Amino acid sequence: MGLPSAAGAGPVSGRPLYLHLLDRELAGSVGFRLTPRVFEHVVKCLLLGTTSPLCCGISLVWENGGLGEREHRLLSALAEHDSFQPISYQGTLDEFVSSRQRLYRHDAHRYPLYFGRESARLELVRPTLHKDADTTEALQGSLLAWAGTGDGGGSRGLARRVVLRALLKRRERAITFSLFQATARRVGGGAEVEGEVKRRISTAYTRHYLDFLGGDLPTGVPGLSRFDGDLSADFPLFDVPLLTVLLRGVGLGAVLDSPWHEHERWWLRFLVERGTGAHWALVWNLGAVLGAVAALRPPARGSGEQFTARAAMRAALGGLCEVEGARAGEGSLVAAAADRSMAVLGRVVVGPADLGASAAGPVVPAANTATGAVSGGVTQVGSVHGGLHQHHHWHAPVPEPRRP
To answer: For the region Disordered, what residue ranges are annotated (predicted)?
Structure first.
């Protein structure tokens, strides 16, 4: 057994991660704007800090105006190496486009990709994972169930009425906010009712994909915390701000913080070995660190509790990583990072008092599967190069020439 994670998933969960940040309807419901910089940082953080495949419905990729050709090519490269799994209900690309044209006929101006020559761009990222259940039908069932229950008062009660009335006369239209907009205006309630409807659609849509995948979503994406408490399962294992602190602290800041295209060759080599050898050891250690630090605090469930826990953990992790970050240099980048992460883990186990353990109680001794050692009051931390973990030579990258 390893050190405890926040929700028992284990330091290397491998649980599929759903990229809700690509959902423009969800983003619009909370005023979030996806930029290439935010997209790239989150994706790179999850590639380095987890072994999980990244997943989402293929429509989220094609319909998001925040993604350009460079981002599509990045996702295409990830799909080629099984690190990204685009999902579709339809069997072929032509079937998918035809279904979108039928669903969005009433709203074609918002989806030009499906109604003109631009559709050739869809070849860049093709679906690789088939989903049997029709998302639209599942979404309708979930929303009807919500609309028929609960309190009928206030903005939420009005939102339930809007959803029920619009769905009863939907016919073949897609379930996006456009379907409910006219009804919402007739019912009244203004921006509050519209916001309730938008977020209910997005929550139901996201939960459908999480259930299909048995997955989780990355937490801590700036602007999307509204959904973290309701939809995430294993905080803090997939928390972007906390993984960022750890990855920089173990010497991976150069590839994490630089544009993908500057180190593209390095990334492509890394993708071949992702989830094995030194990278597996790195992810195990990072997960164990997060689990051990989280175990010193009460479980964080809602978004507000996650925010408070993240702030405390971030401060603690910053202190733990300070020494290792100062020593970070060139060499076999991922293997060196795995070694540094082992040293960070050793400091968590040896010195829990620095993290407030004196108030929360001692860390339970645990066997370290990376070394075979048992962690107690005093621990000697070994190297991941021996034993089970192969040493892969991912050297520090040399930036490639900037592309126009």
So the answer is: 384-404
